[in-house]
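User: Small ask, check this?
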Amino acid sequence: MARLSNRQLPIRRVERAPWCELGPQSWPGTLPAVQQLLDAGLDLGPATVLVGENGSGKSTLVEGIAMAYGLSPEGGSTHARHSTRPTESSLGQNLRVVRDLGASRWGFFLRAETMHGFYTYLEENPSKRGEPRFHELSHGESFLAVLQSRFDAPGLYVLDEPESALSFSACLALVGLLHDLASTGTAQVVVATHSPVVASLPGARILELDGDGWHEREWAELALVDHYRRFLAEPGRYLRHVLDDAPPDDV
């Protein structure tokens, strides 16, 4: 993909829709990060990374952004409309996106928890010749096959915890792929992750979610990074809290 000096990003901003009636008393408005989005909106650059503990709202936000853009909550490209058991929140229906004039309207939502159903959809609705039978590959291999075959065009790429199926080296490869996409000026990346490797995406704006909403951070400032560093240096300091047979002086 050719790199352009003038960026044409699929989304400039995500904000509360004029018809939105979602308030702080009903889920997902009860999540501080969701209320922050509804109150202040969110400007998106070429790459945005969301990190935070389980329940902080990462997946809810990326799902809402994907749905507001027109993508299926269960994942896939702009034209994929497979559905198994609807579990999505109402956030996407209460947001609007501010698009960049002339930018691509294509997109892809990679969602780890629904990829099995998406593979079935692809096998029943093949769109590319020679595409692998994803169910016959390992979990990691099928993820990589999707990345290699579909992350290659201008558009919006939304990823929810893509590291769940990937090895360390595959996570590094994913970072390289996302960086190449975001560097084109016509592709845009939004990713929610628990991986310090994926969160290290060069040039990305990193938002750390907690009980107060989101806060812009540098990679080295993230609690996620700090915990991994401490664990790798002294695993016992963490394991003694979860292992019944850990010696009391294991610090």
Observations:
- The longest strand covers residues 11-16.
- The beta strands are 11-16, 42-43, 47-52, 76-77, 95-99, 107-111, 155-160, 187-192, 205-210, 213-217.
- Residues 72 and 80 are 7 Å apart (CA to CA).
